[in-house]
C-alpha cells in the first residue's frame, strides 16, 4: 500500500444507509489512471462488488462528485456509483439487508491500473438505525412486527410499513427521519400455507400504532410495495384512521388470496396464470403479465374500492417493472379516482426503474429468487435509472408523510 495515497470518505466514514458520501483520492501522480473498487458482504455471506477506472487531475486527485468513470461497473460522473453498481458474482442474488442492528459495511480501495497493486483503502459503515432510535419486537393479538421509535417524547407521526417478507430496512431508516414506524409482514407463514388474509390483523397493527404515547398524528401512514400494495389500498378503503398511503409497484386489485374483514370476505382474489411466465436465457423468468386482467368483467369484484378512502395516496410505479404491470395498474387507479371526482392522490412514474424500489444506495439487482413463486424472476430496471429513482422516491415518501400526517404539538 502506498503511504502517500489517501482515500477519504466525506464527511465521515460512518453514516446512515441512505446518506450519500463523497469519495476522494489524493496523493496520486498527475493524470495517473487507477481503479477504485467497492466490496461488501450481505447477511447471507454473499459478496457484492464493483469497480471503476478514473484518471487523476493535474494535482493527482480524484473526486467522484466531479470526475467521470472511464470504464468499469458504470461510466460517467456518478458520485455513488460504486455503491449502487455492486453486483454478486453469482446470478440471481439479491442483496440481503433485512436486519437493522448491523451496519452495511463497504470496503473501498484504490489500485494501480496496470499491476493492480493496492494503493489505499477505507471502510464505510452505513447504519440502518441512528443514534437514539429504539427497536422493539412486538407480538400483539394477531400481528407481529418490529417497532422503531425516534429519540425524544414526540409527538411523532406514525407509519405502518408493510413488507411481503420481514425486512427492517425501510422502517428503521424512516424512524431516523422522525417517524414512529411499525414493520409488519404480509406473510407470517410460508406462502403456500396461507389460504386467506384478514384485514383485521393489519387493522390491529394500525390501532397499536395509534396507542403509542409518542405518536401525535391523528391518523397513520402506510408504506408498501408489491403484494403489500393491495393490502395498503384495502386499509385505506376500509379501515378508519389511515390518512396517507404509499403504494409502490403493486396492483389495483386484491391479488392471489381472498381478503376477509369483520368475519366475512370483502374481496375475492385476482388470480394468475403461471404459464404466462416468460423464460429467459439467464434462467430467470419474466412474470409481468401473469396476473389476470383486473378490469375484465369477471374480475372487477377484486378491484379495491379506493374511492372510499378518506386519506391521501402516493402512487409510485417503475416503468420497467418486469414483475408486475405496475404502471398500468397505477394508471387504472388514477382514472378510477378521477372518475369518482377525487383529487386526493399524486402519482409518479420512473422510466428505467425496476420492481425493487428500496431506500437508496444499496446494490441494484436485476433478478433473484422470488419468495412466493419459488424460482428466479426478473425485476427489471437499468441500474443508473433505478438508482436515481430510489433517491427521488425516498425523498418524496418522506415529504408526503410529513404533509399528510400532521402532529398536534400541544401537551396536556
Keywords:
17% helix; alpha/beta; 2 domains; 25 strands; 6 helices; Rossmann fold; eight-stranded mixed β-sheet; Immunoglobulin-like
What can you see in these coordinates?
The chain is α/β, with parallel strands linked by helices and 412 residues long. It has two domains: 6-127, Immunoglobulin-like, CATH 2.60.40; 134-404, Alpha/Beta hydrolase fold, catalytic domain (Rossmann fold). The chain has helices at 81-84, 169-176, 199-210, 227-238, 326-339, 383-404, and strands at residues 6-10, 14-16, 22-26, 33-41, 47-55, 62-63, 71-72, 87-88, 104-112, 118-127, 134-140, 143-149, 156-163, 180-185, 197-198, 215-225, 242-248, 259-261, 264-267, 278-279, 285-286, 312-318, 345-350, 367-369, 376-378. The strands form six sheets. Strands 11-12-14-13-16-17-22-23 form an eight-stranded mixed sheet, with helices on both faces. Helix 2 (169-176) links the parallel strand 13 (156-163) and strand 14 (180-185). The chain is globular, with a radius of gyration of 23 Å. The protein starts with 5 loop residues before the first strand and ends in an 8-residue tail after the last helix.
Amino acid at each position: 500500500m502506498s503511504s502517500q495515497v489517501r482515500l477519504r470518505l466525506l464527511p465521515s466514514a460512518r453514516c446512515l444507509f441512505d446518506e450519500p458520501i463523497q469519495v476522494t483520492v489524493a496523493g496520486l501522480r498527475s493524470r495517473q489512471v487507477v481503479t477504485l473498487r467497492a466490496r461488501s458482504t450481505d447477511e447471507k455471506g454473499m459478496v457484492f462488488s464493483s469497480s471503476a477506472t478514473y484518471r487523476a487531475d493535474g494535482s493527482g486527485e480524484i473526486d467522484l462528485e466531479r470526475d467521470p468513470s472511464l470504464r468499469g461497473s458504470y461510466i460517467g460522473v456518478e458520485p455513488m456509483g460504486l455503491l449502487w453498481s455492486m453486483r454478486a458474482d453469482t446470478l440471481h442474488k439479491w442483496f440481503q439487508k433485512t436486519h437493522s442492528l448491523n451496519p452495511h459495511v463497504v470496503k473501498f480501495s484504490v489500485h494501480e491500473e496496470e499491476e493492480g497493486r493496492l494503493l489505499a483503502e477505507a471502510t464505510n459503515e452505513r447504519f440502518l438505525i441512528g443514534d437514539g432510535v429504539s427497536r422493539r419486537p412486538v407480538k400483539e393479538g394477531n400481528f407481529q412486527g418490529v417497532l422503531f421509535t425516534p429519540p425524544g417524547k414526540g409527538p411523532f407521526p406514525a407509519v405502518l410499513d408493510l413488507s411481503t417478507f420481514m425486512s427492517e430496512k425501510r422502517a428503521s431508516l424512516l424512524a431516523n427521519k422522525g417517524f414512529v414506524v411499525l414493520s409488519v409482514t404480509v406473510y407470517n407463514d410460508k406462502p403456500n400455507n396461507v389460504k386467506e388474509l384478514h384485514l383485521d390483523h393489519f387493522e390491529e397493527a394500525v390501532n397499536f400504532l395509534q396507542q403509542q404515547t409518542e405518536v401525535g398524528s391523528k391518523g397513520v401512514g402506510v408504506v408498501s410495495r408489491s403484494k403489500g400494495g393491495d393490502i395498503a389500498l384495502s386499509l385505506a378503503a376500509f379501515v378508519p384512521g389511515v390518512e396517507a398511503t404509499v403504494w409502490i409497484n403493486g396492483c389495483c386489485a386484491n391479488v392471489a388470496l381472498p381478503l376477509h374483514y369483520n368475519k366475512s370476505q370483502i374481496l375475492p382474489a385476482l388470480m394468475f396464470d403461471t404459464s404466462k411466465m416468460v423464460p429467459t436465457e439467464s434462467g430467470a423468468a419474466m412474470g409481468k403479465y401473469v396476473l389476470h386482467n383486473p378490469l375484465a368483467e369477471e374480475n372487477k369484484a377484486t378491484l379495491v374500492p379506493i374511492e372510499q378512502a378518506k386519506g391521501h395516496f402516493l402512487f409510485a410505479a417503475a416503468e420497467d417493472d418486469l414483475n408486475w404491470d405496475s404502471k398500468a395498474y397505477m394508471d387504472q387507479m388514477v382514472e378510477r379516482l378521477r372518475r369518482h371526482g377525487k383529487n386526493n392522490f399524486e402519482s409518479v412514474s420512473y422510466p428505467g426503474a425496476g420492481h425493487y424500489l428500496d431506500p437508496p444506495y444499496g446494490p441494484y439487482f436485476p433478478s433473484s429468487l422470488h419468495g412466493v413463486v419459488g424460482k428466479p424472476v426478473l425485476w427489471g430496471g437499468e441500474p443508473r435509472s433505478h438508482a436515481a429513482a430510489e433517491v427521488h422516491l425516498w425523498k418524496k415518501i418522506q415529504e408526503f408523510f410529513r404533509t399528510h400526517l400532521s402532529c398536534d404539538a400541544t401537551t396536556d
